[in-house]
Amino acid sequence: ALAAWSPLGFVAHPMPTRSRDAAATTRRANALEPAPTVVQGGGGSEKWWEATSQGLIGKLQVEQSSDSIQRLRKQMTYEEAAFDQEIEDVVVAGKRALLRLRMQKAVETPGMKTHLFKAIRKQIARALTLRRQREIARGVTAEQSRRMRRRRRLELKMKYEEAYGGEAAMPKSAKWKRRMGRIV
């Protein structure tokens, strides 16, 4: 074999001479596709369709895991859905009350009852704990719970964007994004 000089020392020539037929057999159909592995010594060489079927099985498993949230929602009875909605209403009402109290505190309203902050926060915490305990009883994992929370938040955001319109789709500077809380 030919040797070429490189900064790392002498290495084999990058383009060794070989026959045209050998180059044609090692060429792949797709440049991005990995070269097929050939097992020497006979036996279980992997076929092209086995890798494809494994990929399809993986995709199917991902789809099934994302559909589990929808299945959990459909499995709830009317009473359970109504109770979950009631818990959600308690949480939202509590957050509204906290906002109102913060505004009263900011304008220094006379006779304001500051002990209500703690009481309302505890009530919200109890409602959220109750929701999570009910999810655990239904067999919802922590990851599924997080996904459902994110999806609820996204649905609410989409509802508000439909009603009031979204943000203008113009490029924004990093300074503006930081000031508006889009990035940290």
General description of the model:
- Helix 3 packs antiparallel against helix 4.
- This protein is mostly helical.
- It starts with a strand and ends in a 5-residue tail after the last helix.
- Helix content is 64%, strand content 4%.
- It has helices spanning 20-26, 48-75, 78-106, 115-138, 142-164, 174-179; strands spanning 3-6, 9-12.
- The protein is extended.
- Strand 1 (3-6) and strand 2 (9-12) form a beta hairpin.
- It has a domain at 78-180.
- Strands 1-2 form a two-stranded antiparallel ribbon.
Structural class: mainly alpha
Order of helices and strands: EEHHHHHH
Percentage of residues assigned to helices: 55-70%
How is the quaternary structure best described? single chain
**Uncertain parts:** 21-33, 35-42
Kindly estimate the percentage of residues that lie in beta strands according to DSSP: under 5%
Shape: extended
Q: State the total count of DSSP E strands.
A: 2
Please outline the major beta sheet.
2 strands, antiparallel
The Cα radius of gyration reads 31 Å
The number of helical elements comes to 6
Q: Provide the spatial order of strands within the biggest beta sheet.
A: 1-2
N→C terminal distance:
57 Å
Look at the structure and give the mean pLDDT: 75
